[in-house]
Amino acid sequence: GNIMIDPKGTAEPGNIVFDKNSNMEILKDWAKQGQQHGAKVMVQINHPGKQVPKTIAKETVAPSAVPLGNGLNKLFSTPRALTTSEVEELVQKFITSAKVAKEAGFSGVQIHAAHGYLISQFLSPHDNRRTYKYGGSLENRMRFLKEIYLGMREELGKDFTIGIKINSTDFKEDGLTEEDSLETIVELANLGLDFVEISGGTYERPAMMGATSKSTNQVFFAEYSKTLKQKIEIPVVVTGGIRAINAKNTLLNENNTVFLGIARPPAIESNIPNKIKQRRRSNIKRQILLRVQRLNPFT
Questions:
Q1: pLDDT of residue 11
Q2: pLDDT of residue 215
Q3: Gap between the Cα atoms of 75 and 68, Å rounded
Q4: How far apart are CA 40 and CA 163, in angstroms?
Q5: Is 154 exposed, middle or buried (0-12, 13-18, 19+ CB in 10 A)?
Q6: What pLDDT is attached to residue 42?
Q7: pLDDT < 70 regions, the chain
Q8: Is 162 left (phi over 0), alpha (psi -120 to 50) or beta?
Q9: Are 187 and 193 in contact (CB under 8 A)?
């Protein structure tokens, strides 16, 4: 989760970077250990853009020099707008990270295009005020993501798994809309994308943490996923708010998704996927879960 493409663009202390200087022996061992019991291990590849605290970096970059709102400008610097050549360099760095993941033996990669990070910023008309090539129309705003995906596909081959994590919406008036999100996903699916994981929100509007949900038992993004599944044939992953076996069954039975994402429970009880599969219940105490939530809720 949240592997960085550039040591000069990291989101938190201690972030791992996959680039030409990576220690391949360590990465190969990591991939091997993760797959030893038959699991698949994919690498989520990311660049944070402007969502880097001032304590990490004094200068940040973004499609346009638009600061974070909702009072976050006190913690995050106003970014510098990327030049066209810098955007093209970042495309290549995403591709390089994916090549490193494949060489190390990982099962696939996921392009992180959600949560207000750099690719998400390019997709958002609020964050992306550019007027040429990489900005303006949706076609131009999705160009950065498309070039990353197509470059990875060309380098890694048609049989290597490549997916994306993308916002259903940014949950703000002038951000990425559901309509634009759907169109972007359909475009990538037609180009051969293998799967899509649905999320939503940014640091300003953290919907991925349930900030827009009226019920603590509501699965996030389920309705959007149901709409999306009617438009594409590739697997759709739903993550967020899946807190009970009944919720899981409802998602699958109502054809909202064919793949479920759970994150925090396995951090406490690593065998929980097998228990769910065997219909065995597992109660995780809320106070322990809250402790895990403080680690990094955005990946």
A1: 92
A2: 40
A3: 9
A4: 13
A5: exposed
A6: 95
A7: 205-219, 255-256, 281-299
A8: beta
A9: no
